[in-house]
């Protein structure tokens, strides 16, 4: 199925990664519907998507971008719905029978917070996702790209980390929700094969009640697990980026708020790790590259389905290059043009020395590769933060609520 004929439901589509992915989907010819409860995001992000899509259309006039003239609420139908709200999700699918696939971002994501309120994380991330999957099954939409995380690898035995590295459960409640959901999705795929086989057997025996008259059904699921490493950066325009609520949990948004004076200094959690400079190493991935990874995942699922292949597969999305905390402080200070203050404090529970991806499987099978450099990542993040020191600090009206 070509992108121009597909409609993708994006849960959590107003968030940082979600909004960048919505833009990339539109630019790639897909139609998009967004579901988000706005608990940790802003509808303003979709207004920015709309603006950037119009800029793309103006620069590349073609029939593909004719819809750029539509108002935002028409171009990107939006529903303020929580994934725990089953009737709300049902209404979305009832209103849009054209939905062919889902990209699932919605969920809680702060490691530290998950240790304080684990039941909330298990409820939202696991119960909410199961709720979504059940509604998808009811409406015969059995193709999903799931936002997983490199946190499923825990403290890996080797670096760089391949997809075959052991998956662990000794981690934060947030990390465990990702592990559990990966298992749930794999189990769903296995069960769907059995269901399809039984259906075909019944159909061959004419015990399915149709006497072979109906079009053959397909109950099999297609699932892509995308294990992100460390998303960072912002759209190069400076129009769209990460809108943190409260004190950021991650290094780069924290540094950016130090740069605009909203926070005094960065706390470096430990400098006694077994790394070259003693600080933790992570694989930082530009959010625009990550968004393109989701488009590549959808295209791969379509190719596999066309070949009669279904099931569940995991891919690392990263650069394959690790940078320490001090490396990132230096790189972002260079982008800002001044040395950013920091102090070294105690290690943070749960941090591991090194999480660097082996992205070769995604490079080969998804035909995807991270293209943007560390300097571009830092420059784009600084442009966003400098232009939007308070993020999406507006209270726009929200169209199309249900």
Automatic annotation (TrEMBL):
User: Which Gene3D superfamilies has this protein been placed in?
Assistant: NAD(P)-binding Rossmann-like Domain (3.40.50.720), UDP-galactose 4-epimerase, domain 1 (3.90.25.10)
User: Which GO cellular component terms, listed alphabetically, does the Swiss-Prot or TrEMBL entry include?
Assistant: cytosol
Q: Is this entry keyworded Membrane? A: no
Residues of the NAD(P)-binding domain: 214-380
Name of this chain's protein: UDP-glucose 4-epimerase
| This protein's UniProt keywords | Carbohydrate metabolism, Galactose metabolism, Isomerase, NAD
Q: For the NAD-dependent epimerase/dehydratase domain, which residue ranges apply?
A: 8-189
Gene Ontology MF terms: UDP-glucose 4-epimerase activity
Pathway in which this enzyme or protein is active? Carbohydrate metabolism; hexose metabolism; Carbohydrate metabolism; galactose metabolism
The uppermost taxa in this organism's lineage are: Eukaryota, Fungi, Fungi incertae sedis, Mucoromycota, Mortierellomycotina
Co-factor requirement = NAD(+)
Task: List membrane-spanning regions.
Answer: none
Protein family according to the UniProt entry? In the N-terminal section; belongs to the NAD(P)-dependent epimerase/dehydratase family. In the C-terminal section; belongs to the aldose epimerase family.
